[in-house]
Specification:
Blueprint: H1 6-24, H2 30-56, H3 62-85, H4 94-116, H5 125-143, H6 153-183
Helix pairs in contact: 1-2, 1-3, 2-5, 3-4, 3-5, 4-6, 5-6
């Protein structure tokens, strides 16, 4: 029942969309790029939608808490990897992509540690902005040279990726600092009932 709930189905669809997005990188033509951008954008939208529906319909589950952050990171990591592999990112733009991926690994490890302490971290407003800018940047870079000739599409995408990387550093530091309070024993871990984790979205 939990697996077939609509929020979890949306999360699973985001994971399945990764394979299709990756496949489009092996198809030539502008239509493939625009299709990949549309699919990536739709998958990114489900990231917000599944969490909203789970809270609104009270269908939050441990399965959803497990799958949701994994789906997000797989989508971002796979797409950034393919952009790099197909030379759609300049040498300079690889650095912000690397920063984003390293931060995702850091946050994943921090979440796993804090889960053992039954502690949750709230999503900051800045982290939400980071996620939004990051998804827009990747979508623009997917289109790349297939975009309008009058606009420097690639340059815009890479600029947004740099902004997302800077916000990534700031928010990653904020989360790490919050986690260190538990690692250093400055705060006692919660015992018994876990603190509520609203579809953990540590962006």
């Amino acid at each position: 029942m939990l697996l077939t709930s609509l929020p979890n189905m949306l999360t699973l669809s985001r994971i399945l969309a990764i394979a299709i997005v990756v496949a489009t990188f092996y198809v030539t033509g502008d239509y493939a790029r625009w299709f990949a951008c549309a699919l990536f954008s739709a998958a990114g939208f489900t990231d917000w939608l599944d969490g909203h529906m789970a809270r609104r319909w009270e269908q939050q589950s441990e399965l959803g808490r497990f799958l949701d952050p994994i789906a997000d990171k797989l989508l971002v990591a796979a797409t950034l990897f393919m952009l790099t592999a197909t030379a759609r990112l300049s040498a300079q733009a690889i650095l912000p992509a690397l920063v984003i991926l390293c931060r995702e690994i850091l946050v994943s490890g921090l979440r796993e540690y804090l889960a053992g302490l039954r502690v949750g971290l709230p999503v900051s407003r800045l982290a939400k902005w980071k996620t939004g800018i990051q998804m827009v940047a990747i979508g623009v870079l997917i289109v790349g040279d297939a975009g309008p000739a009058l606009l420097p599409v690639v340059a815009i995408g890479e600029m947004l990726l740099w902004i997302a990387a800077l916000l990534t550093i700031v928010t990653g530091y904020d989360y790490l600092r919050a986690g260190l309070t538990h690692m250093t024993g400055e705060r006692r871990p919660q015992r018994g009932k876990a603190q509520p984790l609203a579809r953990p979205e540590l962006r």
